[in-house]
Amino acid sequence: MCHPLPLSKVVVDLEHDPELPGVRVSARVKTTGKTGVEMEALTAASVAALTLYDMLKAAEKGMIISDIALVEKTGGKSGDWHRAP
To answer: Is 13 a catalytic residue?
Structure first.
């Protein structure tokens, strides 16, 4: 976000979740650089959720975007990290 990074892969997935009801948005980002790309992944997921809101607001203005969080990261200076279940 503050400096250019060589992103090698960005994948954003949308999955219908009948338990919510709603959609789960996930983003995976990879880089060839020696830094983490957590902010890029969180930004991708956030923008995807906001895009869904914009597209669906005519049908339901009461939608909620929530629980945007890092699930796991590998590599970088701080090493690997996984959110506890």
So the answer is: no
Q: Are 53 and 68 in contact (CB under 8 A)?
A: no
Instruction: Decide if pLDDT at 75 tops 70.
Output: yes
What are the boundaries of each domain within the chain?
Answer: 7-69
Catalytic residue of the set 17, 54, 67, 80:
54
CATH topology of domain 7-69: Alpha-Beta Plaits (3.30.70)
Confidence (pTM): 0.87
- Encode pLDDT of 34-74 as tens digits: 888 899 999 999 999 999 999 999 999 999 999 999 999 98
Task: Spell out the SS3 assignment of 3-58.
Answer: CCCCEEEEEEEEEEECCCCEEEEEEEEEECCCCCCHHHHHHHHHHHHHHHHHHHCC
Backbone angles phi, psi at 23, to 5 degrees: -125, 135
